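ok trying again, last paste got cut off:
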Amino acid sequence: MTHRFNASSISPLTETVDRRSFMKVGLGGFASLSLPGLLRLRAESPGENRKEKTAVIMVWKPGGCSHLDTYDPKPNAPAEYRGPFGTIATNVEGLRFTELLPMQAKIADKMTVLRSMRHGSPGHPAGTMRMLSGDTDIRDKSKPRLPDWMSVANYLRSQQGPRESPLPTYVSVKGPGGNYAGPAYLGDAYSPFSVTGDPNQPNFVVPNIGLSDTGEVKHLRRRASLRENLDTLERAFDQAGELEALDEFENQAMSLLTNPQAKIAFDLSQEEDRTRDRYGRNTWGQQLLMARRLVEAGVDVITTSLSGPLCGRVNNWDDHAVNHHVFDALRFRAQAYDQAVSALIEDIYERGLDQRVLVVVTGEFGRTPKINYQPSTGAGNASAPAGTKQPGRDHWPRAFSNIWAGGGIETGRFIGATDKLGEDSIERICSAGDFLATIYHHLGINAAGMTLKDFNGRPTPIIDHGTPIPELIG
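nice, full thing came through this time. structure:
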């Protein structure tokens, strides 16, 4: 399978192989590949070098989480706004959550709540693209035109020379993807190494990593050595210098296949039972535990999406009345969500990762403050039988919340505010550009001065608006 890359970075005669397809091919496929695609990896504005490489874990809530029913309750609002949940005190003075989040309330001193996010993209595709890539187009496109921040970070980190870790720079543990995110003009080489399946299942394995048969490893390395010799011969005729290094993802694939440490990093059985229990013996808990293991093992960017059956009937947080009874859905997923997120944040601090690793928990927008009622379109978890009128909340990008932990930031506080009904951010309003600039800053990337060449070779800013949020800078 071939892919086109930025014409300024790759010869038009050069072939490359999609990382995900390559991993599916396996050992035999690797041995039979033609001459590898070779990239000359360059950046116009490389990120700052830090003594210790920083990392980000992003926990994504696809569909958008109701801010009023979690981190920004409005107990004095009319009943048609506030919802049925009571509020509880956190261990931070003046900060209250709803009763759905008792475990996070106990560790609120280890997080900062941003209550004043706002943007103008009301649909799931446009909202996701805005939050992940900074695209301000409010139309719902079929695929992103700009690379998401994860792919950009992967690309820029690849400019810094060979990795010490055998693991990829960017791993998606069932993270946001599909048509809403991706590397766009950077090319598929900068997509994540994707972990699919349910890590809570006893037979869960990540394929094509850490071969245990030493004979297979030696055979594979001999094949790779032969190919490198052929590549050396081809370099003699490479007047443009495009064949300076092996393709990044083929190097990565080789490391994953031959290094036993790679297999250990993904192996949750290495954890004590009490640790796995603390995260929750469910899909979400084990996803977040894997994220913590991977960041400790040297992965720089990890995304994971809290979706699937734990969300309710439609497998996401899109709590329209036609999909879910919004309050039943929030109750249904609350324990798994609260437990997994609080365990991850606690571990980041207890294991001394809190300066290096930034944890961000967010979705693409919030939900309408005013409750509406519509007939359900089907029975299931958190949804009444079809035709039953039930409450819901719709898309709401004008005000929503997310939480931040680690990253060396000052925690135990909240930033910004919404009005008394939760309809609009009114204090310390933060945009998607600010959100992205803050993440880039933690990764040592000066987003304001960074451009990458698009499909047409034009220098394109990685984001064209926004500045790092001062309260969220370590």
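cool. Confidence is low (pLDDT under 50) at residues 1-50, 215-246. The two ends are 42 Å apart (CA to CA).
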